[in-house]
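A reminder from the course coordinator: this example appears on the midterm review sheet, so study it carefully.

Given structure:
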């Protein structure tokens, strides 16, 4: 499967956000990953609709929006209108997962469903035919710069063997040049990387991460 890199702007320098996104585009990454946190579902705040609306005016890159918010059904239409292309919500954050997927689709967007490290793959198995993407968190959601949890690879493999190749499987958290091959071998094809993209030379980092996957 084609491997897609999704650089997480949580690790960007917000003074230079526009320049950083341009560099991501120039390096050929297909997505940017946009982490929205509400201080309730996760113990941290990030940014939301206003930032997405503002950057949408300047780029056509795919916006891969990761909602770490409680009861995401309240905000899906507004994130779609703000310019999200893929909207991923957490299975743990709602008792309306099926409805959330339908709502995202009815807005003409791609639907993702995420699970935190402690949530079993069985929580998302009912949605592998209706969702476009499953996100297996490889850190506890809430902060960038954490350590990759390799035990999540079992979950990725289980979902991949159940779903076949039609489903995108994303991993998010702690991914670097030194470990990116691991989740890809387990079956993930959309790879989020924050710190390892935005520390130092962005274009060089993206090139190196992409090359590691191509060597497989
Ligand atoms: C964590 C976020 C991640 C994070 C990844 O809650 O969902 O997307 O930005 O950052 P790194 O790659 O630094 O772990
Ligand atoms: Zn994320």
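Designed residues:
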């Amino acid at each position: 499967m084609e491997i897609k890199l999704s650089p997480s702007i949580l690790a960007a320098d917000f003074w230079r956000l526009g320049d950083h996104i341009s560099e991501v585009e120039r390096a050929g990454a297909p997505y940017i990953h946009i982490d929205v946190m509400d201080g309730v579902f996760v113990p941290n705040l990030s940014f939301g609709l206003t930032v997405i609306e503002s950057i949408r005016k300047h780029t056509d890159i795919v916006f891969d929006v990761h909602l770490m918010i409680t009861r995401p059904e309240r905000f899906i239409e507004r994130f779609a209108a703000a310019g999200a292309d893929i909207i991923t919500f957490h299975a743990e954050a709602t008792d309306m997962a099926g409805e959330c997927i339908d709502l995202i689709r009815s807005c003409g967007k791609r639907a993702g469903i995420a699970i935190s490290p402690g949530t079993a793959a069985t929580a998302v198995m009912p949605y592998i035919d209706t969702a476009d993407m499953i996100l297996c968190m490889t850190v506890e959601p809430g902060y960038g710069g954490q350590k990759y949890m390799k035990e999540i690879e079992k979950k990725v493999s289980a979902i991949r063997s159940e779903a076949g190749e039609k489903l995108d499987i994303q991993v998010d958290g702690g991914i670097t040049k030194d470990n990116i091959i691991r989740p890809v071998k387990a079956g993930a094809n959309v790879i989020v990387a924050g710190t390892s993209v935005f520390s130092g030379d962005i274009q060089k980092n993206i090139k190196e991460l992409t090359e590691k996957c191509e060597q497989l």
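The mean pLDDT is 98. The chain is about 30% helix and 20% strand.
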